[in-house]
Amino acid sequence: MSERLALSEDILMKIDKPARYIGHEYNSVIKDRSKVDVRFAMCFPDVYEIGMSHLGIQILYGLLNSFEGVWCERVYSPWVDLDSIMRKESIPLFALESQDPIKDFDFLGITLQYEMCYTNILQVLDLSQIPLKSIDRTEEDPIVIGGGPCTYNPEPIADFFDIFYIGEGETQYENLINLYRNYKKENKSRREFLIKAAKSIPGLYVPSLYDVKYNKDGTISSFTPNVEGVPEKVKKEIVKDFSNAYYPMAPVVPYIKVTQDRVVLEIQRGCIRGCRFCQAGQVYKPIREKSLDELKKYAITMLKNTGHEELSLSSLSSSDYSKLPELVDFLIEECDKRHINISLPSLRIDAFSLDVMSKVQDVKKSSLTFAPEAGSQRMRNVINKGLTEEVILNGAELAFEGGWTRVKLYFMLGQPYETLEDIEGIADLANKIAARFFETVPKEKRVNGKVQIVVSTSFFVPKPFTAFQWAPQCSKEQFLDKAYQTREAISKVLNQKSIKYNWHEADASVMEGVLARGDRKLCDVILKVYKKGCFYDAWSEYYKNDVWIDTIKECGLTPEFYAERERDTDEILPWDFIDCGVSKAYLKREWERASKEQISENCAVKCQGCGAAEFKCGICPGH
């Protein structure tokens, strides 16, 4: 292994946090190039600190490196300071482990976690000196493959990728790599490889092998394969035996502080809750648990292998893990011995959870988080939140009795069928929680004599494969009106001095909505926006809303068509060619039930016939 770095000392001294770019972190994988025949660069298109915190990349990095003859390395978006130097000095983007240029690799895998990173994908390709569009790439260029939640509607970025991997990455990468090896041996063309991959490997979508036609009103009239034998529908990949799926026992330990600086235990995948706004809850169905014995083994091994001082559980709803009490008892005992902190996100606030939190948190109690998502019970029924006001208030009371004095409340504004009364309900609920504090905690026991309720609102973005995929999204002005109405309502309640309010930016939420439900016509928009200097759009200080809006109009499109328009349930949607296991009929049923304010029970109580039972695993009946 050469000790050379891709960046000179002069450059490293000029830039912020040079440790982002030098590699060689503890547990990073270094292989002998002469014994490797496939090289894979795994990219998170955002800054190192965020990319290094992502569990999916840790899993795939370890998995790919466990394959004979494969070397998987990491690459992240260079921060803006280094970006300008690399452009000026024509330094190609490089992988951390070998410091070799990405353009010399066989594969560039890019994880797509959120829509506002789309221009960063182009930054990574551009700095790597790889043609931005798949159609312009030659036999010399890496195969560019996308994975992650945004592949459930890959159409706005279809032109930039050779392949999208739909679903969970643990199942098909070995087959894809072996197919690639054969293609190299037989000296076949890039296009022949892509056609064979699309035909023979489940879960792979090759955009160049499909044609889209449009109606006069801009909606899709047809979406069809243009090569015989390529599947009309691409079915997501799923790990059926979740307990025995690959998991990284020695994740890479960064030199610098990253967003999630801890050992992460993924306790389950999927969710039983049927929240109608939530994409993850649908596309990761059915819920599958990891066995308690495996988790105990993982926890001890990973703590030994990393030296991390904190351990966290990962899942969409930790409280729904069936062996949570036993797991928590074990972790408390083990972590106590090792002086390790435990972080338990995604817990419902009930007596068990509060008891656990009392045991794992320091004497100085940090804030508790509730996510009612809506202010009124009517609205919580519309979104199928499965949370009553009584449950919220009882949870708050238990928390106050336990010594907590700070509560964070998360709500979403602009969801379908919302009224002013529902918005005012946010202030009313916050007020009732504050009142419950004063009723529960005697004056002499109040720390600093008060409680702090922090109300945060985000703006609703309709996502593919949810019951709200047909819903109109609010305009920026409507969103801001709703935020002002919330603020106004809070200013009038009795306990207003105990309540602090903050809200997200509206313009980026609208753009996220445009990209979330967009079609292939947006590829040109993203390319033009990038060429006008936009990237790091997920960072508010770099997001240029005017450039986006102007460019959409230049391309003969409107944001309203993608965001504010309510879809007909019979319309062909850009993502209809994907089978995520949840049927369109089920989503239509849930959309109708939302309009009638009817709740649907969760998967553990009653099967809703969503279609995920076809995978024959997890919680689904018949398994």
What's the pLDDT, averaged over the residues?
Answer: 95
Query: Structural class given helices, strands, pairing?
Result: alpha/beta
**CA-atom Rg in angstroms:** 25 Å
Helix content estimate? 25-40%
Which band does the percent of strand residues land in? 5-15%
Number of strands: 19
Shape: globular
The side-by-side strand order for the widest beta sheet comes to 2-1-3-4-5-6
Q: Tally the helices: what do you get?
A: 20
Low-confidence stretches: none
Which features does this protein show?
single chain, 623 residues, alpha/beta, six-stranded mixed β-sheet, four-stranded parallel β-sheet, 20 helices, 19 strands
What would you say this structure looks like, in words?
With 623 residues, this protein is an alpha/beta fold. It has a domain of 227 residues. It has 20 helices and 19 strands. Helix 15 packs across helix 16. It is globular, with a radius of gyration of 25 Å. The mean pLDDT is 95.
Reconstruct the topology from this structure.
Blueprint: H1 9-14, E1 38-44, H2 48-51, H3 55-65, E2 70-76, H4 80-89, E3 107-111, H5 118-127, E4 143-147, E5 163-165, H6 173-185, H7 190-200, E6 204-205, E7 210-214, E8 220-225, E9 234-235, E10 263-266, E11 268-269, H8 279-283, E12 288-289, H9 292-306, E13 310-314, H10 324-338, E14 341-343, H11 351-360, E15 368-373, H12 377-382, H13 389-401, E16 406-413, H14 420-440, E17 452-459, H15 476-492, E18 499-503, H16 506-516, H17 522-531, H18 545-554, H19 559-562, E19 578-579, H20 584-595
Parallel strand pairs: 1-2, 1-3, 3-4, 4-5, 9-19, 10-13, 13-14, 15-16, 16-17, 17-18
Antiparallel strand pairs: 5-6, 7-8, 11-12
Helix pairs in contact: 5-17, 6-7, 9-10, 13-14, 14-15, 15-16, 17-18
